[in-house]
Design goal:
Low-confidence stretches: 251-257, 472-480, 634-644
Structural class: alpha+beta
Distance between the termini: 29 Å
Number of strands: 22
Shape: globular
Mean pLDDT: 85
Strand content: 15-25%
Radius of gyration: 30 Å
Length: about 650
């Protein structure tokens, strides 16, 4: 369903088709698509709403640019440029904003005729080839400002091999129910995550068939549009058309949609975690890669290219460690933005948790005080996540309450002062120790279970992790829960055996989609497959899984077989990861920064990745795909319990 833009008649008179205009340049369509008009009146109005882009020096032509990207030209008379502006009075100038039907000029028809020129007014969309699917017109006698043509926007186009982000953004906005249906918007690595007032107004089928959109998901109270690697550019294009979202809270809690209160509260919680973590994932991943590269450069096997005590090493190490060390500040800022709190106040509370003296006391578990035999101690909150997420929520609630009870002249100073003092104290004394203890315990438990299960755990997790994510975790909105869990493992224990196995699932799905891309003779499948394979090898599998693999079930199963074997090898060799980023690009995450010469995990990565690639690629090639197979539709998402 292409977006429709009405074009109005620039004057009263008879509308004619462009081919009937007595000028070869216009009638041939060389200048664009549009229509002509034989005017009966000289009053000229704007055919569209937008900005005046240009006024010709001879005053015979005025150009407009609309918010949807249409470039519209009103050309008054044929060859009237020779009259050097004599018959025209212009009422607008470049840069002016106009509404459709607004008076923009007066044309003296008598003067034009007496000079021997045709008075035909031509209205053109000059960039029609780039932005329009088509243009319909009605040939009839009309008054000025009458809708007589309909321009149909392209859903998404290519410019120099790249998506036309503005066109795609327009299509997405229209088909999520329009601007008025959007409460909030965030994005993660591959998805636009809309918070809609009414999800029933969104058109899933239209968006799924839109070039540039991989899939549509409903999870965690969000309407998720899977874009892939271009998500940041599309997100920016959406914000350009909806700038009000940039300053608004990053998302809105799930409204009372008829679901049971437990389901709704659970969705709110997962949505909060999603919004708090998604903005910092990139820097965590990048920091992990840098730390792994540093460990690689210190290996004696490579000649110890870099000394761990050198100025260069320590400087780069500081760059890599900063995102983890000050994680409470980053998470606090993002969490506050997510729920509409004060991000500076939340970041300040995060600064309290990472204050050098607090860290020093936390490392030695210095006692604060004792009440009824309970010893309250300082903890080290660098690398922590969950205590700060709760602190940001408490700061939001307390800040809102203080806005109601404090006089306006006290708000600027006393609201943040009280909030920082109270929430920091609660976090240091009560919530921080409880949450941090539970999170660290859970992280250690999972690491121990994965290590203890060996090859069996690796095989089971490797073979079924992607199935679990797609069929269960996404349904409940829990797939994002894996991200902070792995981050907590690396923060608390400096390793994640679970993430090492997950890494092989990324590699295998990438190899499967690469086999499709190489084997297929279909241009669209080949181009999508190559892009999806590169993305998967860089640690983002959604374009591969939702774009191709799941739609050819045997391809997805081939990927599962490869990841099962890869996970088995990882478990058998007790491989672990010391950074966040997996797949091939995350190879440096398998070097242990604390013990660079211990290469067991790196060897496990090499062997498991190579095996996963071979198994997935070969199985897809000989069994999983051929061009005669029909691409299936997306996997229908099961209903969450309690939502019917």
């Amino acid at each position: 369903m292409a977006k429709k833009i009405p074009l109005l008649t620039p004057a009263a008179g008879q509308v004619i088709g462009l081919k009937k205009v007595d000028d070869q340049v216009f009638s041939s369509g060389m200048m664009g698509q549009g229509f002509g008009l034989e005017p009966s009146s000289g009053q000229v109005v704007a055919p569209v709403a937008g900005e005046v882009a240009m006024v010709a020096e001879a005053k015979h032509a005025i150009g407009f640019t609309t918010s949807d990207g249409l470039e519209v030209l009103v050309h008054m008379g044929i060859n009237t440029v020779e009259m050097k502006g004599a018959p025209f009075e212009i009422e607008v100038k470049a840069g002016d904003k106009v509404v459709a039907g607004q008076a923009i000029a007066t044309m003296d028809l008598t003067k034009v005729k007496e000079a021997g020129y045709a008075t035909t007014i031509v209205t053109l969309v000059t960039n029609a080839q780039d932005v329009l699917e088509g243009l319909d017109i009605e040939e009839k006698t009309v008054e000025a400002g009458t809708p007589v043509a309909t321009a149909y926007l392209k859903k998404a186009t290519k410019k120099s091999g790249k998506l036309d982000y503005d066109a795609l953004a327009s299509t997405i906005i229209e088909n999520v129910g329009g601007k008025e249906n959007v409460n909030g918007l965030i994005h993660c690595i591959t998805r636009l995550r809309f918070y809609l007032k009414d999800e029933s107004k969104a058109h899933d089928a239209v968006l799924q068939d839109t070039p540039g959109v991989i899939d549509i998901m409903h999870a965690a109270g969000q309407y998720q549009v899977v874009i892939g690697n271009e998500v940041t550019n599309v997100y920016d294009a959406v914000l350009k058309q909806m700038p009000e979202l940039d300053d608004a809270p990053a998302a809105t809690p799930v409204q009372n949609d008829g679901k049971n209160p437990v389901s709704r509260a659970f969705n709110n919680l997962i949505g909060f975690i999603t919004g708090s973590m998604s903005p910092v994932i990139g820097v965590i991943a990048a920091s992990g890669i840098i730390k792994g590269m540093l460990a690689l450069l210190t290996l004696p096997q490579l000649g110890s290219l870099l000394s761990p005590t050198s100025t260069l090493y320590l400087s780069v190490s500081a760059m890599a460690d900063s995102a983890f060390f000050f994680l409470p500040i980053l998470v606090g800022y993002a969490a506050a933005k997510r729920i509409g709190g004060d991000p500076i106040v939340a970041a300040t509370i995060g600064g309290v948790l990472t204050y050098p003296q607090i860290i020093t006391w936390g490392k030695s578990f210095k006692s604060m005080f004792t009440i009824f035999g309970f010893h309250f101690q300082f903890l080290n909150y660098t690398y922590s996540i969950f205590p700060m997420i709760l602190a940001a929520w408490l700061a939001k609630k307390l800040g809102d309450w203080l806005k109601k009870v404090l006089p306006s002249y006290l708000q600027m100073i006393f609201n943040p002062m009280i909030t920082v003092l109270v929430v920091s104290t609660i976090t240091l004394v009560i919530t921080g120790p409880i949450i941090q203890g539970f999170a660290n315990g859970l992280a250690v438990l999972i690491n121990d279970l994965v290590h203890a299960s060996g090859w069996l755990g690796g095989l089971v997790i490797g073979a079924f992790y992607q199935v679990l994510v797609i069929q269960v975790l996404v349904i409940f909105g829990l797939h994002w829960g894996v991200v902070p869990l792995v981050a907590q493992q690396i923060a608390g224990t400096h390793e994640s055996a679970l993430n090492a196995i997950i890494s092989s699932t990324m590699v295998s799905q990438g190899a499967a989609v690469l086999a499709v891309a190489i084997k297929s003779h279909k241009k669209d499948t080949k181009s999508l497959g190559i892009a999806a394979a590169i993305s998967a090898f860089c640690g983002v599998t959604e374009p591969a899984i939702y774009g191709i693999n799941l739609r050819y079930r045997k391809v997805f199963i081939s990927g599962l077989a490869g990841s099962g074997v890869g996970g088995l090898i990882t478990g058998l060799m007790h491989g672990s990861m010391y950074g966040f980023t997996g797949s091939l690009i995350g190879f440096s995450s398998f070097f242990n920064p604390a013990h660079p010469t211990q290469l067991t995990s790196f060897y496990a990565f090499l062997l498991s990745s190579l095996t996963a690639i071979i198994v997935s690629f070969v199985l897809t090639w000989v069994w999983g795909y051929n061009d005669q197979m029909a691409m299936g539709k997306k996997v229908e998402k099961k209903q969450r319990p309690g939502t019917k």
